[in-house]
Amino acid sequence: MTNFLFFVSNPANASLAKDSIGTVLNVADTVLENFPPDTLNRTQTDDSLKLDMPVPLDETDMQEKKTDADEESDSLVIKRGVKKKKKEKPDTLVSYFFEDTLRYNRYISWTVNRYLNSPAIVQYTDTLQDYNLHELAVYKTDVGFSSTGVTGGAILLHNFFKRQQSDIFPVMSPYNTYHFTPDNLRFFNVKGPVSDLSWHTSGQRQNAEDNVKVMFTRNISPSWNAGLYYHKLGSLGVYQNQRAKAKTFNIFTSYIGQKYVAHAGYIYNSVNNRENGGIVNDFFVVDTVVKANTIDVKLKTALNEMSSDTYFLTHSYGIPLNIIDLFRRDTLTRNDRNDTLNVDRHDTLNLDIGTIVYFGHSFEYSRYARIYTDGIADTGYVDLYKERRHHYYDNYYYYPVASRDSLFASRLDNRLFIRLQPYSATAIISKIDGGLGYVFDRYYGFHPSSYLYKATDAKLSSGYLYGNAQGVFSKYFSWQAFLKYHFSGYRINDLLFDATARLSLYPLKKGVHFQGRFMLDNREQPHYMKKYYSNHFKWDNSLNKTTETRIEASIDVPDWHIDAGFKNTLISNYVYFNDQSIPTQTAEILNVTALHLNSNLRWRLLRLDSRLLFQTTSNSAILPLPMFSGNLRPYIDMVWVKKVLNAQIGLDIYYNTLFYDYAYNPATGMFHTQSEKKLGNYLLADAFASFRWKQANIYVKYTNVAEGIVGRHYFSALHYPRTPRMLRYGLRWFLGN
């Protein structure tokens, strides 16, 4: 080093040293110029090109930041003495599955269309009091419903267009609002662990009602999420033999990658309900005041037990075929390539533009079971006014002392599908889908021949094809059309066509959205409706396919908190349970029309949330519906401590007009028509106070406060009264980073 300093300090050698250093730098520049541009990490500052030189290996700092461009050039450049660092994973969700605006959300919630493996975003509220006020999902789903009058009991929605019936196990349909299926199960993607805990209760020890929910989910990686959900609700009931209990438990997982997307899970649902058949005489509720648990009921030991297990997997993989993009990449100039060196490729999904082909597979296996039991002691009751014994069931087909009716079913549904994105995910024709599926159903039900011959299950299979097309035009227009056709098996010639279109205009900040829908559904009847044999009921029906043609139109104005809609359907060969609780098919074409209006009015501290539903039916004896159902919620919304404590105090009011509300039969497990008595025209009101403290919500509710003031005709189905006045309270705690 001393000799070098002496050499440079000598004036005679200074000029030589300067020329030598200049020569070395020129050679270095020439070498660097000949390297591929992607091997250099350059940043442009003040019109000068700077190089990040390698960092020598060190025991305390053995890491080096590398760009994606450096990763691609590892085969061309060998940096001696430098330790490679593995490619860093992005801390945000990277996938074509969601819009870019959602990728940085704290949490995303969605359901999945298993025919296409595509998402439908669901708003999962955390501490919103509007959501927590209704502890039962049915209150969020519809403005009114028929029920057995107890939490956990059977339910039938007043809104005909929201009713859903299982095509394999209809006897579990009255419990849809409590349970999950692969179609309504929610998946999550969260930036940190999320827990949703709630507990609601009411009543005294002898008639207590409990509602417990636990949901936990977290991301194992930015793309991979897993979680579990448990919900138990039920009541001991205020009337005799009215205990009800419904459970659901599911484990779910999803992987949302750049090209591979998967959804899988296990769902368990169960029902364990004691059935009392309703009270013996409505007089003890309407015209006198006695304790509810002293009123005689029609069945004393009847019990319904049901359960279902479902395993499912839906996944797909996308393969880019970006021929145009590859051509453009090859024609880039050297300067163009230099300009792209600092692009964050994690932010470039490469699946938004270009031709993409997705290959997918969907699998589901479900098992269902039901057992109904009753004893001789509960097969009749004494009418106090006619002084004679009545039998609740008219028939005993195989055993006059007791009943034990069992029913089992299973379904295996397997399908393969392919999706083509011709050019762009935001084109007027953005997706074209097609799939091929096979469904295999197995049924078991008792028959007297089982005593003589080995019982055989009914095995039914069917093959189907389906297709889908959709597109968007900027933020103003979107459309989708789905077609499914069964070409073989027991459901041959079943056809479903469902098309929607949405037009958005923006005279207001959040827009005004118009939506239209057309649906044509030609479907086979469930096996349960055709053949059934039990101790009290039996039928062997020859039923034709039901055809439904539906049109819908709606308008949504988010800035004004208003949405309204119109729906109309024509149904031929409609199947219903008649007054004798036997499935019957009518040749009459039924016409059902519905109008709805939902609004949330705000003025200072005052709030008025309303849901109004008007319905007409062409034959109320076959398809009874209330002409009007409404839910009004006037309340005061006060902020006591900003961003800390909020309070809502008000009333939650329900009302529907008189109509021949349904009756419920425990042995069939289904609601059926009746012409004995009209129900309705009763104002059902609950007084509530709800408090939100940070991420916790506490509420107190006094139900049916109008009892005795506007009468006592609070029936939810024929001979099934609603719960009398009762104090309810609960807590919901949402924990999320």
What would you say this structure looks like, in words?
With 737 residues, the protein is mainly β. The protein has 9 helices and 39 strands. The protein has a 22-stranded antiparallel barrel. A 3-stranded antiparallel sheet has the order 4-3-7, with no helix packed on it. Strands 1-2 form a two-stranded antiparallel ribbon. A hairpin with a 4-residue loop joins strand 33 and strand 34. The radius of gyration is 33 Å and the shape is globular. Mean pLDDT is 82; it is low at 1-18, 27-90, 326-349 and 384-388.
What's the assembly state of these chains?
Answer: single chain
Residue share in helices? under 10%
Number of strands: 39
Mean pLDDT equals: 82
Write a compact overview of the structure shown.
This protein is mainly β and 737 residues long. The chain has 9 helices and 39 strands.
Features:
737 residues, mainly beta, 22-stranded antiparallel barrel, three-stranded antiparallel β-sheet, 48% strand, globular
Describe the secondary structure blueprint for this structure.
Elements: H1 2-9, H2 11-34, E1 42-45, E2 48-51, H3 68-72, E3 107-113, E4 118-121, H4 129-132, H5 137-141, E5 145-147, E6 155-157, E7 187-190, E8 194-202, E9 209-219, E10 224-235, E11 244-256, E12 260-275, H6 283-286, E13 302-320, H7 323-330, H8 334-339, E14 356-375, E15 380-383, E16 388-391, E17 402-421, E18 431-445, E19 458-473, E20 477-489, E21 495-505, E22 512-523, H9 527-530, E23 531-533, E24 538-540, E25 546-557, E26 562-572, E27 575-577, E28 583-585, E29 590-603, E30 606-617, E31 628-641, E32 645-656, E33 663-665, E34 670-672, E35 684-693, E36 696-703, E37 715-717, E38 720-721, E39 726-736
Antiparallel strand pairs: 1-2, 3-4, 3-7, 5-6, 8-9, 8-39, 9-10, 10-11, 11-12, 12-13, 13-14, 14-17, 15-16, 17-18, 18-19, 19-20, 20-21, 21-22, 22-25, 23-24, 25-26, 26-29, 27-28, 29-30, 30-31, 31-32, 32-35, 33-34, 35-36, 36-39, 37-38
